[in-house]
Design a protein that fits this description.
Helix content is about 70%, strand content about 0%. The chain contains nine helices and no strands. It is rod-shaped and about 100 Å long.
């Protein structure tokens, strides 16, 4: 029952732990029913198994991109309408458009291209200024209140999701990684294997040893074969 546990992959170590527990819990092996070393393997394995498949991030990046697009699209349309009115001298909304467009310039004319955190902060300030009575009246005269409302709703939805993801990612990073638990699992498995090996000559233990030995051999076979390093070719004859 020879194996270098540190050579196993994260997944293979988990598989070895699970198979060791399954075999040891078989009714035939009452000799280890209340064994404290087996209990230690179970405890550490359960913690390890819960963590080794855990993602480092929430995985909601695509959803965040979608939500960002829902605020960028109406914001871009809003800018284009204002530019159109501002350029047409005969438009009854030319001055209103220029005034509102100047506010957008103040917070970032290309706001929709900013990084998410910066865009969120600036967009919040922009919407607060657009909500002021004088500006809201100008937007209402141009019949653009519904567009601003759409931007507000999209901004609120994005902020909520952004904060949720930030919280989830923070929690996941704070969780102890599986790699820090693997040493504990390696130690508990090694201790357990050693006692099974030491008791190999006793009935009950002998059969357990034989089964666990097969599991260990399978784990050894799962390790990648190191690449063969070929000797350098001999120097060419002069």
């Amino acid at each position: 029952m020879k194996i270098t546990l540190s050579d196993l992959s994260t997944k293979d170590l988990a598989a070895l732990g699970q198979r060791t527990i399954t075999i040891s819990d078989e009714p035939a092996f009452t000799v280890v029913k209340d064994n404290p070393l087996l209990a230690a393997v179970k405890t550490v394995y359960n913690e390890y198994d819960a963590l080794y498949t855990k993602k480092a991030f929430s995985g909601k990046g695509d959803l965040l991109i979608e939500y960002d697009g829902k605020r960028d699209a109406p914001f871009g349309g809003f800018k284009n309408i204002l530019i159109g009115h501002a350029k047409i001298a005969s438009s009854p909304f030319q001055q209103d458009a220029k005034d509102i467009y100047a506010i957008i310039v103040k917070y970032g004319i290309d706001l929709d291209r900013y990084k998410w955190a910066e865009e969120t902060a600036q967009m919040k300030k922009l919407l607060e200024e657009l909500d002021k009575a004088e500006n809201a009246a100008k937007i209402e005269r141009m019949l653009l209140t519904h567009v601003v409302t759409q931007i507000k709703e999209a901004q609120t939805a994005f902020e909520k999701l952004f904060n949720e993801i930030a919280g989830e990612n923070s929690e996941l990073r704070l969780m102890e990684s599986a790699s820090s638990f693997r040493k504990a699992l390696e130690t508990s498995l090694r201790n357990y294997f050693n006692v099974v090996k030491a008791m190999n000559s006793i009935s009950g233990w002998r059969e357990l040893y034989a089964k666990l030995d097969e599991v260990v051999k399978a784990a050894n076979n799962s390790k990648p074969t190191p690449k063969q390093v070929l000797p350098p070719p001999p120097p060419a004859a002069k």
